[in-house]
Amino acid sequence: MKSVKLGFNVSSPFIVAFLFALISTFGLLTPGVAQTDPLPSWNEGPTKAAILEFVKATTEEGGLKFVPPEARIATFDQDGTTWVEQPMYTQVMYCLERVPELAEKKPELKTIEPFKTVLSGDREAMAKLPKKELEEVLAATLTGMTVDEFTAEVRPWMEKAKHPRFKRLYRELTYLPMLEVMRLFRDNGYKTYFVTGGGQDFVRVYSEVTYGIPPEHVVGTAGAVQFSYDQTGKPILTKEPKLLLNDDKAGKPEGIHLVIGRRPVAAFGNSIGDKQMLEYTQAGDGPRLMMLVHHDDAEREYAYGPDSKVGTFPDALMEEAKGKGWIVISMKNDWKRIFAFD
Amino acid sequence: MKSVKLGFNVSSPFIVAFLFALISTFGLLTPGVAQTDPLPSWNEGPTKAAILEFVKATTEEGGLKFVPPEARIATFDQDGTTWVEQPMYTQVMYCLERVPELAEKKPELKTIEPFKTVLSGDREAMAKLPKKELEEVLAATLTGMTVDEFTAEVRPWMEKAKHPRFKRLYRELTYLPMLEVMRLFRDNGYKTYFVTGGGQDFVRVYSEVTYGIPPEHVVGTAGAVQFSYDQTGKPILTKEPKLLLNDDKAGKPEGIHLVIGRRPVAAFGNSIGDKQMLEYTQAGDGPRLMMLVHHDDAEREYAYGPDSKVGTFPDALMEEAKGKGWIVISMKNDWKRIFAFD
Predict the structure, then answer these.
(1) A245 at interface of B, judged by CB pairs closer than 8 A
(2) Whether the complex's predicted ipTM surpasses the cut of 0.85
């Protein structure tokens, strides 16, 4: 073996080890994909670069944009931002599919509306239910039981219910690129919170195993619970049909204040319901990152915008995003891979 | 130097180093006080031992009482549990002392009750104010401003207002033994939360610097906030006179569910207002620790119980504690030192 000429006198094995270390460090052994890319499901481009740059800048000690660890709060909408929300929010699917079991216990429901329509299985008729009647279904399936009973009802449903188009469990319909973003933030000392219009108790059932977001980091639409004792004297919490927090639109910053008490430095959403959360985030001092997922990929997921009832993304929101420097994520162009099963 | 006879043949410096290491490890260099005692302000005895044993048992990997890190939640009442609450809750003192500044801005208050009485400075008359009138003072001083304005009002007060008996800043009246307990729990992977009847926004102003408890770990009595825009278009949150959560008695487990969403494994209180939190904590599976601070030290702090309006500790609570294995902390006997300035 001939010694490599480097202009200084060291033994060949040392040079080999040194070069190997150099190559490993800069990822030259696997050209194209750096081994340490924390966002492998994102296509290269300004969107991915903006996320990486933000995390780097806010965690670089001594840097101008440094954010101290205790202030590192990143908030994420759930439906449409971290998992599929079409054709209907997962929680609404749960409520509708829960009605048959409910009617077994309370047979009188079988003959009265809106339960009769839901039990008919006629999806078209269900879709036409007025908001007030849909709310009756939600109240009947989401309240009246203890918190522990509710968890015990949701958990098995999450393990068997499947999405009508993808024929997959709902928790498999999480967006891989967003799971990567959440992990990237957490790996850099950020606390990641859900701030979702979905029910806080519903999301808490699966958020830790599905997203790595613990129950105490779920801000969601919340009803009151009432403390009392069961027949054996054991303390219980019962879910009441009384709304405490409607965690949508203006309710999002209000919920953030209630549960977190700090302004986020990064916020991710996908619809008009996230507008106020992004505005509130941006209004703080120092570096901020505001992003909106845009559903423009009918082939791999869905394409919808101003006219969709679920996840409405009006033109005015797109204008506001452009005007204020919020970054719009194109599902079609920015995401190399959407689901883990892809 | 004569070699120490140990029955084996090693050089003297080695033995000295070995003995030194041994002595350091077991704290023999400072007899009486082990250098590594995490609870130096506690007297030796069953109370201190119970705390140390609980933390050890719940964090010992493979042990029967092991609690996984994500489930390690410890909740603390504030007034009377981690700082002085006599002769009146600190926040009520704030509200009363805030009235003069309020009357400067709104002179019409000077002639109407209950503000007239508060402005008179007559403490006896103030103490006699009916609950409803006191609530008017609280509403006037705790609502109507933005969250940021409120913080800016509370912060300087906390830096200058002094306790009538101790002539010390309120934040100096924290109990050293409880600060040590909080730190011990945190050092062992527990999240420490306040669950206080005090105002959530009030406590958040100083909880991080005073107790090491960040804003997102403060569960407290909470009013609604309303999102809107100021004249410049900047998003603001305004404190509304509408109660969302009365974080006292049954409201404590309800608030724990709302903000944390997990049952605590350890809970600390000092009065009838903490009863339900301790019951709820105990009702969970696995190891649990429930403790009540009993104020029986009129000399160093205060002695009060069933007849006190502030921090009521009825005989029935003492009975319940005994019957259920809750540990009552005797301030007089269990605490070697109460305040950092002692």
Answers:
(1) yes
(2) yes
